[in-house]
Write a structure and sequence with these properties.
alpha/beta; two-stranded antiparallel ribbon
């Protein structure tokens, strides 16, 4: 941006100085505007010789412009695209080269158009990306008309995206932001999203004699009533009936969480319990969807004693709950409950997503609070967890000072961030597969949403307390202070990840767009303990909810990780395995979990059942 800013202020200064020369001596007789300097003094918008100071004027206009943009465009959608346009205009040589390349591509496309119009065979000059299923139906290739609709759309979109990613004079982050928001618009105007430009929708309309469109109208009205484009039919699922059905008991409850202790499935269990810290974004039962997919049930069948967090869904009354509270009243509480119930001195801690970030923070806090060797955790496991937020993935398009300030102002009014807003942001990251796919299937094809438990869980959102989430966005996403030694003071202790000495097992997912695996690998650089890193295929959810099946459906890579490793180097040497990483985890965890002892009931006299699993907090809307 620096070269663009310099060019803009010089151009502005030249215009202002030329105007001042035209006024002659009158330029010195006009009242001088003033601007506040960073040290609190004021300076005019003129040099000492009376000539206008273009740089100062540019700064003043820029400040006014930024203020207007922050109100008109709080999420920074338009500004990156405008910056990209100005950057190209400021680099005419690169623009000319790009136009020349475009002319060649358009000539190839025009030649393809003529051949298809004449009924002659012609290979598509532009092909959809490998992960783009919108044009998979044969009609988009076999029909000359629809093939040309597809080709011209793809040519335009690919060219625009390439130009934005290659914009000269912009930072890589600004390029990605511009490309992201422009891509959202391009996705929205795809021919597949409109009835008259979608041949499959037209075919269904004719074959059903209009019934598909009538049903699509009903689906659209139902979505509007729900305030969301539904991905699944919520009437198919009930928590505690066909979701989260593993038997257990709530044995502890405070204002933030319920602790669920599960009933054993084997007569003996390992002496030291497993404590799972789930994310408080969405609900805990992603790890207990149904008997076949349940990680909780799998751990019980392996002879492990399992405790899990079920977080309360905050409301405005909890606006002042802090991140510190989630550590001390959440993680600290479940660790102490598990130790007290089992009689074990140490537990085996597991953290998923933001629950993993909180667990890493708590481990660093505990190393300082208790002493590095006295932490009441034998080892710890992280699932798709970030501790280094330098490149947090596609979500970074929502992370800048302007957007965070806007979000914090909105949260301050309500006392929380609505879970639907967060879910909408995550869906927008993959708008084709998570928004427009369901618009097309439901509204244009008239198909009812399928019953899919993972998608139901994804729609079962939770709120974020204002104080906690504002701190989380600023301290971690904006300032990335968790990896800075002693930069954060949490619950009265300065924390440093390097103090953690307990062995770590970390799992990432290849296609994770929420916690990119290469960025999660940076955890290996900040923890000095022994580390094993696992790279599962699939994404943020299915890369973790990955039970063993026969024959194997997935694969993973696993191997020891060192602080000096780069993610690419680790991947080259890590061994590839077919099947589920759950089995590798058990081979690592169970030998550390103590000897076998008589299985403990879900509750006892010292810790009576407050209610049966899955508890009450998980049912809160």
């Amino acid at each position: 941006m620096r070269d663009i800013d310099d060019a803009r202020y010089k151009a502005l200064e030249a215009i202002v100085m030329q105007a001042a020369k035209g006024r002659g001596k009158r330029a010195n007789t006009r009242p001088s505007l003033t601007v506040a300097a960073s040290n609190g003094t004021t300076h005019g918008l003129h040099h000492h010789n009376g000539m206008p100071d273009g740089r100062a004027l540019y700064r003043q206009l820029g400040a006014i412009g930024n203020g207007l943009v922050s109100h008109a465009d709080p999420y920074g959608m338009a500004a990156p695209i405008l910056h990209a346009q100005m950057a190209w205009l400021m680099h005419p040589q690169e623009l000319g080269e790009r136009i020349a390349g475009l002319s060649t591509a358009l000539w190839e496309l025009q030649w393809h158009t003529w051949r298809r119009a004449l009924g002659l065979p012609s290979a598509d000059p532009v092909k959809p990306n490998a992960d783009d299923p919108r044009f998979a139906d044969p009609v988009w290739t076999e029909s000359a008309t629809w093939d040309l609709v597809k080709e011209w759309y793809l040519a335009f979109t690919h060219h625009m995206q390439d130009m934005l990613y290659d914009t000269p004079g912009l930072s890589s982050k600004e390029r990605r932001r511009a490309a992201f928001w422009w891509r959202k618009w391009l996705n929205a105007v795809a021919p597949t999203n409109a009835l008259l430009t979608n041949p499959i929708a037209l075919r269904k309309f004719i074959d059903s004699r209009g019934e598909s469109l009538l049903q699509g109208w009903r689906n659209m009205l139902a979505d509007l009533q729900a305030g969301n484009v539904r991905m699944t039919d919520p009437d198919h699922f009930r928590v505690g009936e066909n979701l989260a059905t593993t038997p257990g008991a709530v044995i502890f409850r405070n204002r933030l969480l319920e602790v669920i202790h599960y009933a054993p499935t084997r007569p003996q269990v390992h002496a030291e319990p497993v404590v799972i810290v789930t994310p408080w974004i969405n609900k805990f039962y992603i790890l207990d969807l149904n008997p076949k997919k349940s990680m909780v049930r799998y751990l019980l069948d392996q002879g492990l004693d399992v405790y899990i967090t079920s977080w309360k869904n905050p409301d405005a009354a909890m606006r002042d709950v802090r991140f510190d509270d989630y550590l001390t009243e959440g993680i600290g509480a479940i660790v102490q409950v598990a130790r007290a119930f089992s009689g074990a001195d140490k537990v085996h801690a597991v953290g998923y997503c933001i629950g993993g970030t909180a667990l890493a923070t708590w481990m660093a806090w505990a190393a300082r609070h208790y002493g590095e060797d006295a932490v009441p955790v034998r080892d710890w496991t992280l699932f798709t967890t970030l501790v280094d937020f330098h490149k947090p993935g596609d979500i970074e398009v929502f992370i800048d000072e302007q957007t965070v300030a806007h979000l914090c102002a909105q949260m301050a009014k309500k006392g929380y961030l609505d879970g639907k807003d967060m879910a909408a942001s995550f869906r927008l990251l993959r708008s084709n597969s998570l928004i427009w796919h369901y618009v097309v299937q439901g509204w244009l094809y008239g198909e009812s949403p399928a019953a899919f438990d993972v998608l139901y869980w994804n729609m079962d959102t939770t709120r974020m307390p204002y104080a906690m989430h504002a701190w989380y966005l600023r301290e971690l996403y904006l300032d990335n202070r968790l990896i800075q030694p002693d930069a954060l003071t949490v619950a009265g202790e300065p924390i440093d990840l390097r103090r953690i000495r307990q062995p770590l097992y970390a799992v990432a997912a290849e296609d994770d767009h929420i916690a990119p695996w290469a960025q999660t690998f940076h955890t290996m650089h900040h923890v000095a303990a022994d580390k094993r890193f696992v790279l599962s295929n699939s994404g943020h959810i299915l890369g973790i909810v990955n039970p063993p099946v026969t024959p194997p459906k997935r694969h993973y890579r696993a191997g020891t990780a060192h602080r000096a490793d780069r993610s690419s180097h680790w991947r080259e040497r890590a061994e590839l395995h077919e099947g589920s990483w759950w089995e590798d985890w058990m081979a690592w965890l169970k030998p550390r979990a103590g000897e076998l002892v008589a299985a403990r009931p879900a509750s006892d006299e010292r810790h009576p059942a407050l209610c049966a699993a899955p508890g009450t907090y998980v049912r809160e809307a």
